[in-house]
Amino acid sequence: MLAKLRISKLVSYTLPRRIFERRFLVTNNAFSKAEESTVVTGESPELPSWVKDFLSNKPSSSSVSNDDEDFVIPSLASWVESQKFNSKQVSEGNVVKKPMEDIDKVCEFLNKKDASYGNVFNELSKCDVVVTESLVLQVLRRFSNGWNQAYGFFIWAKSQTGYKHSAQSYNAMVDVLGKCRIFDLMWEVINEMKRSEESGLVTLDTMSKVMRRLAKSGKYSEAVDAFLGMEMSYGVKTDTNAMNSLMDALVKENSIEHAHEVFLKLFDTIKPDARTFNILIHGFCKARKFDDASTMMDLMKVTEFTPDVVTYTSFVEAYCKEGDFRRVNEILEEMRENGSNPNVVTYTIVMHSLGKSKQVAEALGVYEKMKEDGCVPDAKFYSSLIHILSKTGRFNDAVEIFEDMTNQGVARDVLVYNTMISAALHHSRDEMALRLLKTMEEEACSPNVETYAPLLKMCCHKKKMKLLGILLHHMVKNDVSIDVATYILLIRGLCNSGKVEEACLFFEEAVRKGMVPRDSTCKMLVEELEKKGMAEAKLKIHSLVQSKTQDSHSPLSVA
DNA sequence: ATAGGGTTAG
Known about the structure:
Shape: globular
Strand content: under 5%
CATH architecture of one domain: Alpha Horseshoe
Number of helices: 31
Largest sheet: none
CATH class of one domain: Mainly Alpha
Distance between the termini: 68 Å
C-alpha cells in the first residue's frame, strides 16, 4: 500500500512537477533545513557533534574554524604521528588510556620513512605483536596497494614461531602482488605455496585471482598459459568451471578475442556449459559484435543449451548502450515469449540507460512495470534509481528513495551509499555527505576507495585541508588502501587549487610506494611548479620520476 | 563471479 503510493507520487512528479518546483524554488537554507528533518540525511540547524569531530580532528571541539585553508596537511607517511597526537588528546581528557592495537603498531613500523628502501623485516623485529591470521589479512588489506610493505610484513610474519600462513593469507598476498603488477614475485609466492608441507594450498581460487590480474594488465596470453599449465604445475583441475573462470577474466578485462580463441581451442577437450556460452555472448555484446553474439547463441542452441535470462540480458544491455530502445523492447518481448521473463537485473539496465539518455519519465515507467511484474527491487536497482534522479536534478526524490529503501526491506550497501554521497556532493550538500559516511559506520557497512574519492575531491576543490587530512586518516582506520587513482585525484585536485606544496608531498609519497602517476599528471605538477618559480621542487620531481621508471620496483632486501 | 554502478571534466 505504502509502496504503491510512493510510486504514483514519484511518477506524478514527471508531469505536473508542482511539488518539485516548489521545493526547487526555495534555495534558502533555513527553509530546506526546516522541511527535511529526516533521520539519515537531514541537515540540522545546529552542527551535530560528530560533524564537529570530523571537522576538528579531536573529540568535542568547540568550534569549526574557517581558516582550514592554511592548515598544512602532513604527508601520508606521518599519519602515525597524527595518530599519536590523537590518542594523546584522548588520554588527556579521559583517565583510561586506550592501548594501541596490534594493527596500528604494525602500521607504525611499516610507515617508517626508510622502511620501503631498507629492511621492513628488520624493522618489524622490534615490533611487539602476536601474529594471527586475522591480523595478516587486515594488514594485507590495509596495504593492498603497497606491495613492498605488505610483502615485507608477510615474510616477517612467516618467521614468527607458532604462526603459519593459511591458504587465505597466501591467496591475499598473491592478489596484492597481482594488483600491484609484481608478477615475478607473485609466482614466487605461488611456488612456495606448492612446496609447502601443507598440500593443496594452490586452488582454483588462487589461480582465478592470478588469471584476473594478468588479464587486467593486458597480459592475456599469460593468463591463458597460466590456465593451461595449472594442472601440471599445481594440480588445479582444468575443468569446465575453471575454463569459465578464465574466459570470464578475459571478457571482463576486454579481450573477447582471447576468450573466443580459448573456446575454439578447447572445445573438444573441455565441455562447455550454458555459462560458457553466456560469458562469450556477453563478451561479444560488450564489444558490439552483434553478429558474433548471435552466431554464438545459435551454436548454444545446437549444443543442447537454451538461451536464458542472462543470455537475453546481455543483448538488452548492448542495445541499450546503442540507444536502440525499439530493439530493446523487441528483445524484452522475445524473452517473455520464450519463457525467460526479464528480472531485476534486466530492468535495472533498461531503467538506467533510459535515465542516462534523459528519458526520465520512461525510466520511471520501467520502475512501475517492474513492480507490476512482481519483480522485487534490490540494492543495485535502488542505486541506479537514486543516481538517475539525482543526475536529472531531482535530488529530493533521490533522498526520499534512499530513505524509503529500508522500509521496503532492502538493506543499503556500499554502492548505494557511494551513489548517495556522490549525489549529495554534486548538489553541494557537503554536510549530508559526511553524515552519510558516518551512518555507514553505524550500519557496519564498510566504505571502499570509491566512497572517499568524491569527498577527497571536494576537499581539494574547496581547499578544506583539515577535513582532507581527517578523511585520509579515516581511510586508513577503515583499512582502505590508497591507490594510484586516489593519488592522481589528490595531485590534480591540489594543483588546481594552487596547493602545489601539498601536491608534491603526495607525489613523493606515491613514488615512494612504487606508484608512478601518468605523464599527464607529472606534467601538470611540473608546469604548476614552473609557474610558481619553484625550480628546486621541480628538479626533485624530475629525478623522482626518472629513478622510478628505470627500475619500476626496487627489490626488497629481506633476509 | 554468467548479466547490473560510478569514476571525470573546466
